[in-house]
Amino acid sequence: MQVPLLDLKGQFAALKPEIMKEIEELCDSQMFILGPKVAALETEIAAYSRANGACGVSSGSDALLISLMVEGIGAGDEVITTPFTFFATAGAIARVGAKPVFADIDPETFNINPAKIEAKITPRTRAVIPVHLFGQTAEMDPILEIARAHNLIVIEDAAQAIGAEYKGRRAGSMGNYGCFSFFPSKNLGGFGDGGMVTADSPERVEKLKIFRNHGMNPKYYHHFVGGNFRLAALQAAVLSIKLKHLDSWTAARQKNAEEYRRLFAASAIGEKVALPVKASFSSRHIYNQFSILVKDGKRDAVKAALQAAGIGCDIYYPVPLHMQECFASLGYRKGDLPVSEAVADEILALPIYPESTTEMREYVVATIETALK
Ligand SMILES: *Cc1c(COP(=O)(O)O)cnc(C)c1O
Question: Does the Cβ of 59 fall within 6 Å of ligand 1?
Answer without folding.
Answer: yes
